[in-house]
Amino acid sequence: MDVDHSVQNESVSTVDDTTTITELKTENEQTMSTTKALVILVVIFSLFILILGYLYYSFPQMTEEEKKYIKIPRNTTDMQNLGRVLEDYKDTNYTQVFMSIFFCYIFLQTFAIPGSISLSILCGFLYPFLLALAIICFCSAMGACFCYLLSMTIGRRLAYRYFPDRIKSYANLVKKHNDNMFCYMMFLRITPFLPNWFINVCAPLVDVPLIPFWLGTFFGVAVPSVLVVQAGQTLHQVASESTWSWSSVLLLATFAALSLLPVLFKAKLRDKFD
């Protein structure tokens, strides 16, 4: 009996050791995969920085006063100052100004960095209405798709590690709207139910097809962007006048208030769509 008991204990011990080794090996593989994903992400981020750096240093010679305004605008004053500087160079260096805004917008969208709303207003400041709207829609769709592809290839493990519950909730919503995915993606872009960065990161994880994702983003961002572009054009009008026009100021405030309507009616819109 003692011999059998000893053999049984050794067998159980071997099983436990094997299980422990397997768990440790799996954990190590996951850690290595996460590390590799982070390295790839840093490399891609660095490439974008190099492109933006090249565009910045290849820009025509500017005065020291102008250089301090070349930054991502954070408020109305920053946008006015940046808009004035770029407008001065737009006629003689149209391509460089355009490509700088184009790549900067896609960069912010790809890595979910705040600031794209300011660039949207800047587009309205610098370009005609339809062109500004097309730039915003295209850059938003391309940046969202790059974020989608990054998540699909290197961000899956990170997303499941840090947002498991939210991904499950998002997956349930997607399953309910499989037959009208394009309309559902448009709806998500128009309304503030889910953050845009979260939609971009988790869409490939819950099997949202890329084409409806791109099209839904392109047309979905057009609706709120109409107000943003018009706000940029109004800001340009205000900046161009020697004195402030109260009608322009009121128009700008109106557009800002209208942009908050989806937030105020969030619950009603959600119930109606579901």
From TrEMBL:
Subcellular location(s): the record lists: Membrane
Q: Which UniProt keywords apply?
A: Membrane, Transmembrane, Transmembrane helix
Q: Which residues form the signal peptide?
A: none
Q: Which sequence ranges are marked TM in the entry?
A: 37-57, 97-119, 125-151, 244-265
Gene Ontology biological process terms in this record: autophagosome assembly
- Any idea where the VTT domain is? 113-233
Q: Using the UniProt record, give the first listed, main subcellular location.
A: membrane
The record's listing under Pfam families reads: VTT_dom (PF09335)
Q: Which domain of life is it from?
A: Eukaryota
Stored InterPro entries: TM41A/B, VTT_dom
| Membrane topology summary | Multi-pass membrane protein
Q: Which GO CC annotations does the UniProt entry carry?
A: endoplasmic reticulum membrane
Q: What family is this protein classified in? A: Belongs to the TMEM41 family.
What PANTHER family does the entry give? PTHR43220, TRANSMEMBRANE PROTEIN 41B
Name of the molecule in the record: VTT domain-containing protein
